[in-house]
Amino acid sequence: LNPQDEVIILAPYWVSYPEMIKMVYGVPVVVTPEDGSFHPRLADIEQAVSSATRAIIVNSPNNPSGVVFSEKFLADIVDFCERKGIILILDDIYQRLIFDGRPLVTAFKFTNRDVESTNLVVVNGISKLYGMTGFRIGWAVTNRRLVETMTNVQAQTTSCASVILQAAAEGALTGLQSYVESLRLTIENNRNVMMQELQSFTGIKVTKPDGTFYCLPDFRAYNQNSVELSHFLLQKALVVTVPGKEFGMEGHLRLSYAGTVKDVTEGVARLKWALDPHAPSEIYIGDRKVVRDWL
Prior knowledge:
The chain is an alpha/beta fold. The protein has 2 domains: 6-174, Type I PLP-dependent aspartate aminotransferase-like (Major domain) (Aspartate Aminotransferase, domain 2, 3-Layer(aba) Sandwich); 178-291, Alpha-Beta Complex (Aspartate Aminotransferase, domain 1). The chain contains 8 helices and 11 strands. The strands form 3 sheets. Strands 2-1-3-4-5-6 form a 6-stranded mixed beta sheet, with helices on both faces. A 3-stranded antiparallel beta sheet has the order 7-9-8, with helices on one face. A two-stranded antiparallel ribbon has the order 10-11. A hairpin with a 2-residue loop joins strand 10 and strand 11.
C-alpha cells in the first residue's frame, strides 16, 4: 500500500484489520451490510470501491459472527476483484471449522487464472484447527511477486518463524487428522448448546453460527454501549465477553463456546442472572452464593 490507499473490510471484522491497514498508512473502509445481517452484499462493496481501493479483506468463516459466506458471494467477489485489479485477501484461518455438513470451499475454485496471475491472497495457519495458537505459524498462497514482498517485510521484523515450531506445525499438518474432526464435532455440539441456552434469554437476538467457535448476539435490549456492558458482566457475573464495538458491531457481544459444555451453560446462566429481570435473583458462582440487587 501507498499512503492513503484504501482497503475495504467487511463488518463484523476481526479487530486487527483496521489497525494493520493504518500501520502502513492505508485507510480502512468499513462496509456494513445494509440489511442488518452479518453476511456481506456485493452491491454494498461496489458502492464503497473508489479509485484508491487496493484490496478487500474477506474472513469466512467469520470471526466474530461465525457466519460462513455463500459460494455465490465468494464467486462474485473473486470475479469482481479480478475484473477491477483489486487484491482479494481471504483470511481462511477457520476454514475447516464448519458445521451442518457444509462443504469446504476455497476461493481458488472460482478463478480461471493460475496462481501467478491471480489477485487472490489466501491466508491460513495452524492456530485454530490444531489448537496451536501460541505457535504463530501460518502461510499465504498467492503469486511470487507478493510472496517476495511479504518475505522482505518478515525478514526485517521477526526474521523467520522458529524452526522448532515449524517442525511442530509440519507434524500437525501431516499427522493423524482424526483429532481435527473430533475437535470440529465437539465445537459443533457446543454451538448447539449455546444456541439452545440463548433462545431462552429474554431480549437477545442471535444469528446461528455456521462455523468457528464464536457467536455475536445482539444485547441492545440491555445496553447500547457494548464496552460498558462487557465491563459490567465481567464485574458482576465474572464472565468475559468482547465488546461488539471492537468488531464494528456496537450493541453486540462476542461469546466463545470453545470450552466445555459446562462452561457454556454456566456462562449463559450467569449472563441471564446479571441482566434478565425474569431470571432468579440468586446464583452460585463457584461455591459462593450471590444475590442480584441491581434490577
